[in-house]
Design a protein that fits this description.
mainly alpha; two-stranded antiparallel sheet; 2 strands; 201 residues; 8 helices; Arp2/3 complex 21 kDa subunit ARPC3
Length: 201
């Protein structure tokens, strides 16, 4: 799910940077100083999970957990994910620096959408139903990220249609795994520390 430099068009990369910059600005403006440690921890979890790739021929996949990120951080997902992806690009060569805006948008927009859709429902539900909402957020965020990345590839060159379809197919199992992990974390936090599920924005 990491786009390297030179794969998408300059127009798509530039537009992605514009969206990324706006999202980061909104996220930083609404971030309360007391919740900065949560942003840091969530960014670290995202960093680790998206760094570990599992071969699934003809591609490789990894957990995203951007649905969980969106539930915990809301718009602050943008700066958290940007920092995590920037460190991956610089330290490990995962994704390109010029494509960093696109990679951030692909992960952060679904995070914000799923946070907006499910955070309030999770907060106001019993633990079991909250976990179900967590599963939905985790699975939907992966699906939306795949659709967004596939769209960027297809808009750049029609020759990317087949790789885009492979990307979608390879991440179908990830949708359910990501959903299950998110459901477990949400259920656990809902039971033992529900204040962590209060949105930052």
């Amino acid at each position: 799910m990491h786009l390297p430099d030179g794969v998408i068009s300059n127009t798509a990369a530039g537009a992605s940077w514009a969206v990324c910059s706006a999202g980061v600005a909104i996220g930083l403006r609404g971030m309360k100083s007391g919740r900065i440690p949560l942003v840091g921890v969530t960014a670290a979890v995202f960093f680790v999970c998206t760094l570990i790739a599992i071969p699934l021929p003809p591609a490789s996949v990894h957990l995203l957990l951007n649905g969980l990120t969106g539930i915990l951080l809301g718009w602050a997902s943008f700066p958290a994910i940007l920092v995590a992806l920037a460190l991956q690009a610089v330290q490990f060569g995962h994704g390109g620096v010029f494509a960093l805006g696109a990679n951030t948008v692909v992960m952060s927009v679904p995070a914000v959408i799923c946070g907006a859709l499910f955070s309030r429902r999770i907060k106001n539900s019993q633990t079991r139903r909250a976990a179900i909402y967590g599963f939905a957020a985790g699975a939907l965020s992966v699906f939306l990220s795949c659709i967004m990345q596939a769209s960027l590839l297809c808009l750049t060159d029609r020759g990317f249609v087949t790789p885009a379809m492979v990307l979608l197919g390879a991440h179908m199992p990830v949708m359910f795994i990501d959903g299950a992990v998110t459901a477990w974390v949400v259920g656990f936090l809902h039971r033992v520390k529900p204040e962590m599920l209060d949105r930052l924005d």
